[in-house]
Design brief:
The chain has helices spanning 2-39, 41-88, 90-95, 99-152, 157-184. It is mainly alpha-helical. The chain has a domain at 41-152. The protein is elongated. The chain crosses the membrane at residues 21-39, 45-64.
Length: 189
């Protein structure tokens, strides 16, 4: 009975966390697309087409940084546990002259984590670099295409900046909401 009650509470809590987030994202996207299309529809269509790629870049950056920080904390905890054990058993270690053994264990723990850390840092650096490059290329595309539209007289510079700012912020908001999704879940339901 209590298990079912706990399950129902988790499900309700999960739904109460997710539904407002979903409503917020849908309303932000709808309003920004409508505003962008009203202000400068030619530019807005191009920005809307590339928006999924930009959302993916923001999301990958956020997820990569979060996972990297979790791994770093875990590695630090492993070293701290061994150090704590050594300090709490200092008399025993000193009585058996095991200082060298403990130092070798600590070096081994840190060496194993160092190799993994270097591999993860390379991976994270490449992912973050590619993500950042794609976002910069998107800004270049935005301003290049908007410059062409302005020179042809289809839109004004004011409309360019309004449309770009509205739709670019929407991509970031969607990615932030997507990366928060994992933190709103309390357990598997």
């Amino acid at each position: 009975m209590l298990t079912k009650f706990g399950y129902d509470l988790q499900l309700r809590s999960l739904m109460c966390d997710r539904i407002p987030l979903l409503v917020q994202v849908i309303s932000v996207v709808t309003m920004s697309w409508i505003m962008g299309l009203i202000i400068a529809w030619r530019l807005a269509i191009v920005l809307i087409v590339v928006q999924p790629l930009i959302i993916t870049c923001f999301y990958i950056r956020l997820v990569t940084l979060k996972s990297r920080s979790k791994k770093a904390i875990k590695e630090q905890d492993d070293s701290t546990k061994l150090t704590y054990e050594a300090v709490s058993n200092l008399r025993t270690i000193k009585a058996f002259s095991s200082q060298d053994l403990i130092l070798k264990w600590l070096e081994k723990v840190q060496e194993g984590s160092q190799k993994e850390r270097n591999r993860q840092l390379w991976f994270a650096s490449i992912v973050l670099g590619v993500s950042s490059s794609i976002k910069k290329c998107n800004w270049g595309l935005n301003y290049w295409y908007s410059g062409k539209l302005v020179t042809k007289g289809y839109i004004s510079p004011r409309q360019v900046f309004q449309t770009i700012i509205i739709l670019s912020n929407t991509s970031r908001i969607i990615a932030d909401a997507g990366s928060m999704k994992g933190s709103t879940t309390h357990s598997k339901v």
